[in-house]
Design brief:
- Two copies of one chain form a homodimer.
- By secondary structure, chain A is an alpha/beta fold.
- Helices cover 34% and strands 11% of the residues of chain A.
- Chain A is built from seven helices and five strands.
- A five-stranded parallel sheet of chain A has the order 3-2-1-4-5, sandwiched between helices.
- In chain A, strand 2, helix 2 and strand 3 form a beta-alpha-beta unit.
- The longest helix of chain A is centred in the middle third of the chain and has 15 residues.
Chain lengths: 233, 233
């Protein structure tokens, strides 16, 4: 039996892997979309491919876009990715790893893909708990984009209703990990680090590594991440 | 004297040239953004460059994106561009030249560019009179995107206010031409045709050519467009 089609933004990270498994568990036929946006870690593309294959997606489109033409973020520009002690709390304010309008761009491509394959459901793994400093990870952003999708598209005009699913938005990283494990996600295939070594090992000290490591600790689950030998920070 | 920065989506067509001139006349320092999206007429890029230079833009960024990966439109896919008699009225319903989520994607890039250069104003030359069949040319779409921009971005969160300007939305093509001429736009530099010849001549029989030709007629202005020799349609 084939379910209704849905587009799932799949970055290859822990969150989007869990979202993909959730969409599959809800009976959707998953059309994965991986956006590679000129960030340092093109290694994410490989992780996304592995995760998509492991979770049995129906189709997988990769889009390369060049956000470096605009600059303005540590993830696309020559600004250093900040490092901190593994025990540091979350940073305050909007971090330098924030990419201007990133989720708006990712969702606009997901919307184009969805409209093309006549899907009315789009999934994104944003999270407002660990990423409270990112304006485009908040519930107000999700609601605004869902409204936009319903006026922007042929499907919306013709009376179909787009739903933008952000099922992780209120979960802690530990809860996301628990949910992923229950759904059979193999987190060793995922990649979270903002600043990996050339052979793909996680740095262990960027904000994304810290949040991930705390999540495994809190969930009381062995962390399958392969870390590079410790560097001074 | 330098004005406030604004991002203007500049396709190289008649409408976006007029919008660029309008933004300049309102005192904005124009940062032009040309999105080349895998459509057949890469010739638009050249037109956009000429227009930007003639109108004295401060900066001009070109972004290549591949909407052909999704398909679904006569402008990005292998669907034939429809031709009609020059006297035919506008088509009914949503045309096959509609590109799924196109303006959402263009505006999301414009928003990223604006946020990076600390601009709070974005201009787009959409028009609801001639393009009433395109969902993403309507006032409701513009309002929804402006709202999204104000929740999606660092600037919005920090209390700056994004304004999305669509100054042509209620104008007829003739009125747009009149306005452009008053502002000194050289329309011979612009390009509108959906299906130009390899050397850049307009086909004269696609919807875009028809709307443009009617506009010059109605405005009682000589049409500077270079048309290819007439083809049977």
């Amino acid at each position: 039996m084939t379910g209704r089609p849905a587009v799932v933004l799949l970055s290859g990270g822990l969150d989007s892997a869990t979202v993909t498994a959730l969409a599959r568990a809800q009976g959707f036929e998953v059309h994965a979309l991986t956006m590679l946006y000129g960030q340092r870690h093109a290694i994410e593309g490989e992780a996304a491919k592995r995760v998509g294959q492991a979770l049995g997606v129906t189709a997988h489109v990769f889009q390369h876009i060049d956000l470096r033409a605009f600059g303005g973020s540590a993830l696309t520009d020559d600004i250093a990715v900040p490092k901190s002690s593994p025990d540091a709390g979350p940073s305050q304010g909007i971090p330098v790893t924030y990419v201007p309008a990133r989720n708006t761009i990712l969702l606009s491509f997901a919307l184009a893909y969805a409209e093309t394959i006549h899907a009315c459901d789009v999934f994104i793994g944003v999270n407002a708990v660990d990423y409270s400093g990112y304006p485009d990870c908040r519930p107000a952003f999700i609601a605004a984009f869902e409204h936009l999708a319903n006026v922007a598209t042929k499907a919306g005009v013709e009376g179909h209703r787009f739903t933008l699913h952000a099922p992780l938005i209120d979960l802690t990283k530990a809860q996301i990990i628990q949910q992923g494990l229950e759904l059979g996600v193999d987190f060793s295939l995922t990649h979270s680090c903002y600043d990996p070594s050339p052979d793909g090992l996680a740095c262990g000290s960027c904000e994304s590594c810290n949040i991930r490591r705390h999540g495994f600790n809190e969930a009381n689950v062995a962390d399958p991440t392969r870390y590079a030998p410790a560097q001074p920070y």
